[in-house]
Structure prediction request, 210 residues.
Amino acid sequence: MIKHPAKSPVRTELSNMTRRAFVVGLPLFAAGCGAGYGVVHDGGHTIAPVDVTTLDPSLMRQEVAWSGKEKPGSIVVNIPQRRLYLVQAGGRAVRYGVGVGRSEGANFRGTAIVGRKEKWPRWTPTANMMAATPMYRSYAGGMEGGTSNPLGPRALYLYRNGRDTYFRLHGTIEPETIGTAVSSGCIRLFNQDIIDLYDRVPVGASVTVI
Prediction:
């Protein structure tokens, strides 16, 4: 678990910035305070906090302007930016930092829908993952959900033409990788963020990955 200092000038300044932004009506660091990146107790599990004192503020969940044509409720993942956008009404979007595939070929591209959603999902490595990383073979039968599970506390499964694409939007056991390209191709978010996204997005939501 990452422990925060009892008193940190950086955290204090972030908190003050958030309060000032609220007062003047600027976009919020929606999770810096409020909803938070702190400890979460969920489903009998304890999710560790994210150390926001060392975090690039642009990776934190926040509301931003949006000029795309997607309908409210749609998800747009921008691979080069390593950002995910949940489109809102009125030209706004909630932006999340994400981790993406370690190579261009590993990343999903195009459109899909959220075919299903799972809390504390079971993880089963694909044949390609087991070939690339032999240690994953011990999990060929699957790993139960939990704090050691690579999918984290939530997963949104991307489907195309009624079939599972085997790409997911999910949490992570490696929060330090958010904003980088290290995954096997799925899109990973901070655990606090995937819970937020899960709660906002219904099955059937449109997903575009560019």
Observations:
- The CA atoms of residues 112 and 160 lie 5 Å apart.
- Helices lie at 9-24, 127-132, 191-200.
- Residues 1-34 have pLDDT under 50 and may be disordered.
